[in-house]
Design goal:
The chain is mostly beta strands. It is about 5% helix and about 35% strand. The longest helix is centred in the middle third of the chain and has 5 residues. The protein is globular, with a radius of gyration of 21 Å.
Length: about 450
């Protein structure tokens, strides 16, 4: 890979041509780049050939997902604001230069690229309807929100209404954010949405969403019970109490202790170094949060038991999760401004039983992004999805881990709804290991 010729922001990793190798899309300004994985440890810049340069825009997150279910991953690019180095904004606090309010910068529309299945993409932002959603987009996650088998998109936006883009099955999307009551807070104000993730927090088979925001806004938790509107559990879950003084960025649901309940990790850090001159209760460097879910959506701060990192301040930003040593316990890494990244090894998850899965699509996209997995584990039914995007400016391990508690049930049966719509079952599964499952052939 050559040195970037632009200011890089985030990365989205996926196998867009189904050749078995993870490719990289790097966002930034005033353009972005696509690097094809050659399978020999090298990458080739194919941005121009592929047609995904996103010229003249400041892109933040990017989401690989197969919105038309043709077996090839498409690409949604979240654009932030219009900026010009020829006309810079100058903002100060008590004579000290600081970041300007984001609202002085106009927002940008979303970009959607359709995969042509030949290594090239077509910009379908207008025909799909996503170019009309102008705002300051920073984070997004793709998941099937209404369980109709088609991938939808939740977009977190900064001082712009959040979006819930429902897939209409014809190549277009409709925003249902107002109907779902996720666009604004209870006062009708758009929060500073940055990071986002989706997962089954209540164990009811429906996705919940976390969105990280600015201090005093509280990080948001929206819970689905299978219908609109979503329920705002920001206060009920204790997330409001736990995040009032924090500016949040990366966020991800993980079952860190493998008890079967999805917990939550959030990376924090303020924008302005001068904040402590104005606020005694808000720090510039802030600790990450490890929040344990009791199974009913109530969150407990585990900083006392989670390790020293959760008691220290950082200028945290991007957060990625994955099991880097393949022991069945989900690890994580987060980046910091002007400091090395922080890699955290999970020492807790190995104390409980677990089972992991790596899916490989055949008719579906090879990464199986968009798949829904349902594990029957004794008398418990656990639901997970392989999502596109999520967190903030990062990509993640696409394997799925189910925590099983202290003792693994004797009978484990997995149901998979592949992105293609195929439903497949697997039984005779062994706990304590990863299983590779390929999409069954269909006539």
């Amino acid at each position: 890979m050559d040195r970037l010729s632009f200011y890089g922001m985030g990365v989205a990793a996926a196998d867009y041509d189904n050749d078995g190798h993870q490719d990289l899309y790097i966002t930034g300004t005033p353009r972005a780049a696509l690097y094809h994985n050659n399978g020999d440890g090298t990458f080739t810049d194919v941005t121009e050939k592929a047609g995904v340069k996103n010229e003249g825009r400041w892109s933040a997150c990017a989401v690989w997902f197969d919105y038309d279910r043709d077996g090839y991953l498409d690409l949604l690019v979240c654009n932030y604001t219009q900026i010009s180095f020829d006309n810079p904004k100058v903002c100060e606090f008590n004579g000290t230069r600081t970041y300007c309010d984001q609202k002085i910068y106009p927002g940008m529309p979303l970009t959607l690229y359709h995969n042509n299945r030949d290594g090239t993409f077509t910009d379908v932002s207008h025909s799909s309807g996503v170019d009309k959603f102008v705002g300051r987009a920073l984070g997004a996650v793709s998941i099937d929100i209404n369980d109709d088998g088609w991938p939808d998109i939740f977009v977190a936006r900064d001082a712009s209404p959040n979006l819930l883009l429902m897939n209409k099955h014809d190549g277009t999307f409709a925003d249902m954010g107002d109907e779902a009551e996720i666009s604004f807070d209870i006062n009708g104000v758009a929060k500073a949405g940055m990071g986002i993730d989706a997962g089954d927090v209540l164990g009811n088979g429906h996705p919940a969403f976390v969105v990280t925001n600015f201090n005093d806004e509280f990080h948001s938790l929206f819970v689905s019970k299978g219908r609109f509107p979503l329920e705002d559990w920001t206060a009920k879950s204790h997330l409001a109490l736990l995040t009032k003084s924090y500016v949040g960025w990366g966020a991800h649901f993980i079952d860190y202790d493998n008890d079967g309940n999805l917990d939550l990790v959030i990376v924090n850090g303020h924008l302005n170094q001068v904040i402590e001159m104005a606020r005694g209760d808000v720090q510039y460097k802030q600790p990450p949060l490890l929040l344990r879910n009791n199974g009913g959506g109530l969150l407990e701060d585990m900083r006392a038991a989670g390790g020293e990192t959760f008691r220290k301040g950082f200028s945290g930003r991007a957060l990625a999760i994955g099991d880097y040593d393949n022991d069945g316990a989900t690890d994580m890494i987060f980046t910091c401004l002007n400091a090395p990244p922080v890699l955290l090894h999970n020492n807790v998850g190995v104390q409980n039983s677990w089972i992991g899965f790596q899916l490989q699509g055949t008719k579906s996209n090879r990464d199986a992004i968009g798949a829904k997995l349902t594990l029957q584990a004794g008398n418990r039914k656990l639901t997970r999805w392989i999502t596109g995007g999520s967190s903030y400016l990062a990509s993640h391990d696409k394997r799925v881990i189910f925590g099983l508690g202290k003792v693994a049930p004797e009978q484990l049966q997995l149901g998979i709804r592949w992105p293609s719509g195929l439903v497949q079952k697997a039984s005779g599964l062994e706990a304590g290991k990863y299983h590779l499952i390929r999409e069954a052939a269909t006539n």
